[in-house]
Structure of Dihydrofolate reductase:
Amino acid sequence: MARTIMGAVVSLDGYLAKLNGEIGPLFEWYDNGDVEWRFSEKQEESARTTKASKEFMESVYTDIGAVVIGRRLFDETNGWGGVPAAGDRVFVVTHSVPRNWEFAATAPFTFVTDGVESAIEQAKEFTGDGQVDVAAGQVGGQALRLGLIDQVVMNVVPVVFGAGRPFFAAMGPGQDILFSNPTKVAQGDRVTHLLYDVRRN
Amino acid sequence: MARTIMGAVVSLDGYLAKLNGEIGPLFEWYDNGDVEWRFSEKQEESARTTKASKEFMESVYTDIGAVVIGRRLFDETNGWGGVPAAGDRVFVVTHSVPRNWEFAATAPFTFVTDGVESAIEQAKEFTGDGQVDVAAGQVGGQALRLGLIDQVVMNVVPVVFGAGRPFFAAMGPGQDILFSNPTKVAQGDRVTHLLYDVRRN
């Protein structure tokens, strides 16, 4: 059974990006180190991080089969030109299927119009025994509230934006969601990596 | 010259409390360990934490001379019955001095009606070479935006509230505020302690 992991790079005050979409120094750590590596074979550009960051990322993301994202990320990246940034298939949660997307015929993208739960179910079925990466933000927040997330990874950058797009978005008040103590902690340069299991109560 | 430190216990999604003021499991770590200690001689109740939490807290809070808080915390605690929870004097940022406070005649409390900057200035002058503890939230957020904070400590509890009163409040969009990499990290039980220096650019 596939496991779901929700993660992202996040400012110390909990934002994935500023209100205007800019990300400031959130990805400095991804290019300021001595150790060169690739997140997956498909990536063209390699990362250059500390050894600690490389080891954390490689130990956490071992086998991503599919990715679940929201419509905004899809639109902002134009679906990464039809090539998934990770995994073999992307499930896009959206109210309507985009018309005339130039890569629609060949890209391994599925547009899911009946909600986050359905998208995650389809992604898990596709993935088999691997990992389903659920984007933090609106989609991840809804999934977490629905009890559909197994692990959370936060790559915390020591910067405060003051306002922005939250990592834990679209949740609203409700029951406390308890996580384990962090099961992995790693200190990179301009990033602190934290991995949690979501407790099932 | 006194140093200013802004800190608090905070949920993983960045809240000091829920919208209704409840704190859920934020202080479990303060009473779930084997090591007994007191934050200051004035405290009646001792903490029982892990050794790691005790050592972190004692190494960070070495010499609190004064505390700066907002009016809400003052009202919610009734000024801790006129006895500062830490430090020798409390500076309360408020629009108006409370009338008929029962402890007004004897309590070492100063009500500051001309803003956060003035309160911190007075607290630093009072403190001399020690630490001024600035409450996170509205007051701390304003002070951070004004460049008046030297260090930030976050005691992060692995719980997600979904909504609440933010640690970094009242900031709004603006220039990025960069911190150092954490200068101390400690893992307790149900809390991760992080200490940062605020960089001056």
